[in-house]
Specification:
This protein is of the alpha+beta class. 52% of the residues lie in helices and 10% in strands. The radius of gyration is 23 Å and the shape is elongated.
C-alpha cells in the first residue's frame, strides 16, 4: 500500500466514511472529530516506517454526553467498512496503552468516542475552560501540548468547543512563559561550567555527557523562544532544526558534540550559548542582557553565566506569587520519567508537591 501521511488518511477516513455514516444513522447527532491523541503524524513527521504500529485509518470523535457515546460506538462497531484506501480499519496486537498494528483480522477499529470535557480532563488533568491557571500550565508536559494544539480537527460541531479549547492551549501567558524560560536558563547556568572542568581533569567522556545535556536544554529553550512546544526527544532535533534561525546553532552544537577535543567542544558550545542568549533578548520579555560569554571565575574556560538571563526574566514577571516560586519550571523541565509525564494524575501530584499553590 502506498504511504499516505497519517493526518491525510485520517481526515479522509472521517470525511468520506465516518461523517456520512453518522449523518445517515444518527442525523441529530452533534459531534467534533479530529486526531489529537499522540503519534508522529500529529507533528507531520510520520513516514512509511511509522506504519508498523499505532498508525492507520483512525479518528477521535467527541460528543456532548454519555448517551451519545454509547449510540455512536454502537453504530461504528456495526457499520465501519473493513478497509479504507487499501488499509485495514481494524487493529490487532494491542496493549492497554497502544493501538496496535493494522490487520484485517483485528478485533477493534481505530475510532474512539468520548465526551469532550471528560477526554480533555483525562488528557491534561484539567479541563481548559475560560481560564488555565499557572498550576495547570506547569503540570502539563510540552509534548502533550504539542499534540493537542497540533494534529488536526476534521469537524467541530459542538459549537466550536474543540477549537476554543485548542486556542486556550495555544501558548503560555507571558508571565508563565517568562517563568519557564527562566527555569530553562537556570538549568543551563547550573551545568555550563561543568563540561570544562571535566575536560580539565581528563574526563573527556564526562565532558561530552555534560555538553549533551546542555545541548538538549538549549534546543528546548530555542523552541520555547520561538513559541513552539518542545516535543519529546525523538523529534526534538528535527523540529529544532526547522526553526528559521536554527542552522548556525545546529552547526555549533554538532561541533560541540563531535569527536574533537575540548577546544573545539567549547567553541561550538559558546557559539550556541551566545546565539540562544541573542534569541532571548530578541523576544523582548525582559531587559536586554549582554549575550557574550566570559571566563568562569579564574578558570580557563568560558561560560555564558546564564543565571543573568534567568534573573532578568524572573524580575520581569508581574505576578508576585509566580515570581516567588522556586525556579524549577514546568513538569518536564525537572522530570523526565515517561511513566510520570504520560500520566496526568501523577504529573499533577508531582507538580503540586514541588510547586504548591
Amino acid at each position: 500500500m502506498a504511504f499516505v501521511p497519517g493526518l491525510t488518511l485520517s481526515r479522509r477516513f472521517h470525511d468520506e466514511v465516518i461523517g456520512p455514516l453518522l449523518a445517515r444513522r444518527l442525523p441529530d447527532l452533534r459531534h467534533a472529530a479530529g486526531l489529537l491523541d499522540g503519534g508522529s503524524e500529529l507533528l507531520g513527521l510520520d513516514t512509511a516506517r511509522s506504519t508498523d504500529h499505532d498508525w492507520g485509518p483512525r479518528a477521535q470523535l467527541f460528543v456532548a454526553g454519555p448517551d451519545d457515546v454509547a449510540a455512536v460506538r454502537a453504530v461504528l462497531d456495526a457499520d465501519l467498512p473493513a478497509e479504507f484506501l487499501g488499509w485495514p480499519t481494524r487493529f490487532a496486537g494491542h496493549t492497554d496503552a497502544r493501538l496496535g498494528v493494522v490487520h484485517a483480522d483485528g478485533d477493534r477499529h481505530g475510532v474512539t468516542v468520548d465526551e469532550l470535557g471528560g477526554w480533555l480532563r483525562g488528557r491534561l488533568g484539567f479541563e481548559p475552560g475560560t481560564a488555565v491557571t499557572a498550576e495547570d500550565w506547569l503540570s502539563v508536559p510540552t509534548q502533550r501540548l504539542a499534540e493537542l494544539t497540533g494534529g488536526a480537527v476534521f469537524h467541530d460541531g459542538l459549537d466550536g468547543a474543540l477549537a476554543a479549547a485548542r486556542a486556550r492551549l495555544s501558548w503560555y501567558p507571558d508571565d508563565v512563559w517568562r517563568y519557564v524560560l527562566a527555569a530553562g536558563w537556570t538549568r543551563v547556568g547550573q551545568a555550563e561550567h561543568l563540561a570544562g572542568r571535566c575536560a580539565e581533569v581528563g574526563d573527556d567522556l564526562g565532558s561530552r555527557v555534560v555538553t549533551a545535556g546542555l545541548a538538549r536544554d538549549l534546543m528546548r529553550l530555542g523552541l520555547l523562544l520561538h513559541r513552539r512546544w518542545p516535543p519529546y526527544d525523538k523529534w526534538l532535533g528535527t523540529l529544532f532544526a526547522r526553526l528559521p534561525t536554527a542552522a548556525p546553532v545546529v552547526t555549533a552544537l554538532a561541533e560541540a558534540l563531535g569527536s574533537a577535543g575540548w577546544a573545539d567542544r567549547q567553541a561550538g558550545l559558546v557559539r550556541a550559548l551566545e546565539a540562544l542568549a541573542g534569541w532571548t533578548n530578541d523576544v523582548g520579555l525582559a531587559p536586554v542582557v549582554d549575550p557574550r560569554a566570559r571566563p568562569f571565575h579564574q578558570r580557563p574556560f568560558l561560560v555564558l553565566d546564564a543565571g543573568r538571563f534567568a534573573a532578568a526574566l524572573r524580575a520581569a514577571i508581574g505576578d508576585p506569587a509566580l515570581r516567588a516560586r522556586p525556579p524549577v519550571g514546568a513538569i518536564d523541565q525537572y522530570v523526565d520519567g515517561v511513566d510520570v509525564l504520560t500520566r496526568p494524575d501523577r504529573a499533577r501530584r508531582v507538580a503540586a508537591a514541588v510547586l504548591p499553590g
